[in-house]
Amino acid sequence: MKLLSFLISIAIHVIFIAAYLFFIQTHIVHKAPQKIYQVAIVRLKTYKKKPQIKKKKENTVKKQELVQKPKPKPKIKPIPKPKPKPKPKPKSKSKSKPKSKPKPKPKPKPKSKKNLNKIFNYMIKNKIQQLKEKIKQEQLEKIRQKMIEKKIAALKKQIANKIEEGKKKEEVAYSYIQLIKNIIYSNWGVEKSLLNNNRYTTDVDIKLDFRGNLIYIKVVRSSGNAYFDGTIMEAIKNSEPFPKPPSDILENGFVEFIITFDSEEKK
């Protein structure tokens, strides 16, 4: 059986091959000779696409770099120092313009002899007037000082006489206060121009010891003019030590009284 099947298969194959060869021979076509053309082949540039695997690798590498490497801190650029300005070059003497000579000042015209004489006479008259005024003031001051000295001497005599006669304590105190007041007035100077023809009165409390030394002074009632009050206080300080007060008016070795100073009396 096996041999029969084998032989049958060989026969079928032989038949099939013979039929195929016959079919090829019958269908051969005779083609005409063709012309041959030479053509220059131009190669076009082709862009190769990158494989996606590489991209993935690059992305993974970049991600790893971003994760691993921290961002560097921005460097602070140093502030550039200002460049020193170039010094100006000194101008050469040759290029500098020649300085113009200063114009001579006009000579003053000589004054005439008449004008000089007038000026000289005017100066002499002014000096003479000034000297006359000084002499008058000195003479008036001398007369005033003599008058004050006479008053003081007369008051001293009155005090001595009153004490001897044994008069009342009040009269003795009054005469002593008048003596102290005259002494202060002799050392009291006031500029009338600063008073502006106004009348000022000031009451001052004065305390002396048994020797006449100043212990205490105070303005009890001010005139309202600081300059006027200040001159009185200076005059009191400049007048000490005062004459010894009589023993009859002393209390515990001291005497205290109030004197009223009037700008009208100073005139």
Describe this structure in words.
The chain is mainly alpha-helical. It has a domain at 142-266: Fusion Protein Consisting Of Minor Coat Protein, Glycine Rich Linker, Tola, And A His Tag, Chain: A, Domain 2 (2-Layer Sandwich). The chain is 51% helix and 10% strand. The chain has helices spanning 2-26, 52-68, 113-165, 169-186, 192-195, 226-239, 263-266; strands spanning 201-209, 214-221, 254-262. Strands 2-1-3 form a three-stranded antiparallel sheet. Helix 3 packs antiparallel against helix 4 and helix 4 (169-186) packs across helix 6 (226-239).
In short:
51% of the residues lie in helices and 10% in strands.
SSE map:
Blueprint: H1 2-26, H2 52-68, H3 113-165, H4 169-186, H5 192-195, E1 201-209, E2 214-221, H6 226-239, E3 254-262, H7 263-266
Helix pairs in contact: 3-4, 4-6
Helix content: 40-55%
Tally of alpha and pi helices: 7
Reported by name, the CATH topology of one domain is: Fusion Protein Consisting Of Minor Coat Protein, Glycine Rich Linker, Tola, And A His Tag, Chain: A, Domain 2
What's the story with the biggest beta sheet?
3 strands, antiparallel
Radius of gyration: 70 Å
Low-confidence stretches: none
The average pLDDT value, as a whole number, equals 76
* Global shape: elongated
Please report which band the strand proportion falls in: under 5%, 5-15%, 15-25%, 25-35%, 35-45% or over 45%.
5-15%
Side-by-side strand order of the widest sheet: 2-1-3
**What CATH first level of one domain would be assigned?**
Alpha Beta
Task: Give the CA-CA distance, first to last residue.
Answer: 187 Å
Broad structural category:
mainly alpha
**CATH architectural category of one domain:** 2-Layer Sandwich
SSE pattern = HHHHHEEHEH
